[in-house]
Each structure stands twice: as structure tokens, then as C-alpha cells.
Sequence to fold (450 residues):
Amino acid sequence: MSSITRRDFTKATLTVAATVATAASADRVAGANERVRLGVIGIGNRGDQVLSAFLEQKDCQVVAVCDIYQPYRQYAASRIEGTPEQFTDYRKLLDRKDLDAVMIATPDHWHALQMIHACQAGKDVYVEKPACVYVNEGRAMVKAANDHQRIVQVGIQRMSSDFCREAAELIRGGAIGKVTVVRSFHVQNEWPKGIGNPPDEEAPADFDWNAWTGPAKMRKYNKNRTFYRFRWFYDFSGGQLTNFGVHHLAQIHRSLGVDAPLAVMAMGGKFSNYDNREVPDTMEVVWHYPGDTLVVFSQYNANGAAPSGRPCEIEFRGTKGTLYFGTWGYEIVPETIKLGEFMARSPIDRERERHWNTGASPQIEGKKVAGRVLDTEHARVFLDCVKSRKQPTCDMEYGHRCTTGALIANIAHRTRSFLEWDAKAEMFTNNPAANAMLRSDYRKPYELPE
Fold:
């Protein structure tokens, strides 16, 4: 008999299991009126919000919840009709053969492993953004979705909002002319205390610090590295650049008709230095995108003044006008266009310049549209796609590309470099040392599946 390694055996077993589970899952949800049986992994702040969106869907039945923190499990179970099974280990939840899909809203550094394992178990997946904390994790997630023929939706909710789609189509169709600059913002004054500066200490008896840390590097417990505030530490996340910047890049990518930058640079740091965060409180990122558009992410967390001429999250500056975009709607403000040649300023040209200025006029009409971005719309799209087997509005590939834009910007900041990006190879072409930061370095025994 030919020899077989443990890894080969495990891989073969997972392939067979996923094939059987895929067929069973498709049979269970083939009917348009049948309920999708959902398991929820991670039910803290964001998990609870997304859970609410699924609980509003009459054709969704939440049958299992998983979290390492018992109070969260209890609270989630109290909100759900019936008696959902409770787990502390997500792998045991995935063992349930009657689950059609799972929702993952754990800390960012857990997303990749849990999503891939869910695909291997034959479950469709709704995974919160950012998709991951390393670029190679995102590519592995795309491969898992494709190899196991899973429906995967990344939690970038504006991708399922009609007014967001409409704004993107207007820009892409030339409504504000050639867009040369896009600016996006995260502005919030966190001074003087920020997230605070608690000391490292022993983990509480009711909190499994080892399970929370998972594949990340093991460090001394600090309460700021746990609930919600984990986003301020690179082991677990990438700061507001990955927290909000991924949302912004999703809207920018579809508005410009692009999926990756050509280059990126970033500057900033802990300039106010009021807490124990690792990520910057002040930061400017600049990406150069195909079509010659500069995209800027401005993070000002020590000053709350308005960053733009109109309230907005994203400002699209075109040759004919500017579109100000936010989760509450968008507004188009026309440019006043001077149709003549730009005048050279000299005494003998003053009369001609006066005549040129009087001919200035807008070339487009202004427009103001109200809207809302709802978790329920994104959840609805996911459930419909689980049943129809069509790709959702924010599939794994799209979510990976948007996340990657933010991740490589953090690498540019941390290496203090201007980085040129090969989107096809998913590597930097001018900095081998920076390329090492694209790949996950998991703590043993955790391992990113091939």
C-alpha cells in the first residue's frame, strides 16, 4: 500500500466532507420560502448588531451561537426564538450538519481561519469586514470560497444600498467629469484619554485569553486588547484604516471602476500620545489608482473639526463638480467652469481676463439625495444568494480587494516607504522587506489552510 501523510488524509477527508455538505446544503435551501438555518460566531458589539439584522428576516432561523465569553452567549440566546445551542468552540458549531450558513463577527485576526473552516464544512458564510489582517489570508479565503463553491458575503453593508450604488454609477458614468482626487475621512477627537492606558495584568478568570489570542502572537493580557478596542493593536486589526477605510475603499473602488492601487504611501503616528494604542491617532494615506486618480484617507483622532466643505465621509472631486458622499446620502455641487484658456496674468491681459471670468458657468446640475445604509439590506442579499446560489453584492473577491488596499497602506506607514503594488501578483515590486509583512505568521499550533 502506498503511504499517505496525515496532512494528505486530512485534506482528502475535508474535500469529501465539503462535497457532501455542499450538496446537502443546496438541497435544504433550494426552496425560495424555506428558512436558512444560521449559526453565529462572535456576538459582541458588532456581532450583536448583525445578529439583529438577521433576526428581522422571517426566513432565517438562528439555531446556534458561539462566543468565548459566557455573558455574550447568554444575552444572544435570550434574544433568539427557541433555544439556540451555545458553543465556546466554533469548530463544534461547524460540526452541526443542519446548518446552511454562518455569520462571523469575531475580532479581525480570527476571520480567515473561521471563514475557511466554515467553507470546508460546507457552510455559506457572512463574514464581517475587514476580511483579514494579512493579504495572504484574504487570498486563501477567496480560494476557499471558490474551491468549496460557497456563497460568501463580506460585511461591507453599503454594497447592498441603492443610493450608494446610484452614486457610484453617476461618478463612473462621468456625471462630475474626470475624477482626479478622492478624499475620505475618519475624524473624531479622542483627546485627552483616548482608550486609556491600563497596565498589563492577569486575565480575568471568566475570560479565555488564549482562545481570544488564537493565531496571533501571545502577549500579556491587557483589557484594551479585548472587546472593541482590539482594533487599536496590530496583532488583531489595523486601526481606523481597516475599520472604516475598508468601507470607504469599497465605495471608491466601484465609483472609479478599479479594484487595486498602483502605489501607496502613508505618514502619521501617535502624535497626541494619550493612551496605549499601537496604531496612529493622526495619519494621511495616499494611493495612486489606475486612471490617474489620487485617493486619500485622512485620519484625525485628536481634532474633530469638519474636514470638508460639506459634511461627508468621502469627497469625489471631478472636473465638472464634486460629489460629497456619506452613509446618509450624497450631494453633487457643480463647479463654475471658465471655458476659455487659462489666462497668463499680465497688465496687457487684464481686459481679456475680465471677459473670460464673466463667461463662467456650471456645466452640470446640482443634486441632493438622502439615503441610509442598513444592516438588514445586506443580510437580505446574503440570504437570497444562499437560496439562489448567485454571487452577492460584496463577494469574497471584492471584500478581499478592498481590505488589501487598507492593509498595504498600513505596511507603507509601518515601513516608512513608498510602495509600488502589483495587484495581479499581490506583492510589492520595490521593497522585498515589505513583502514579508503580507504573509501571516501564525502562533503554533494554528496554521492557515493551504
User: Anything to note?
Assistant: Residues 192 and 274 are 6 Å apart (CA to CA).
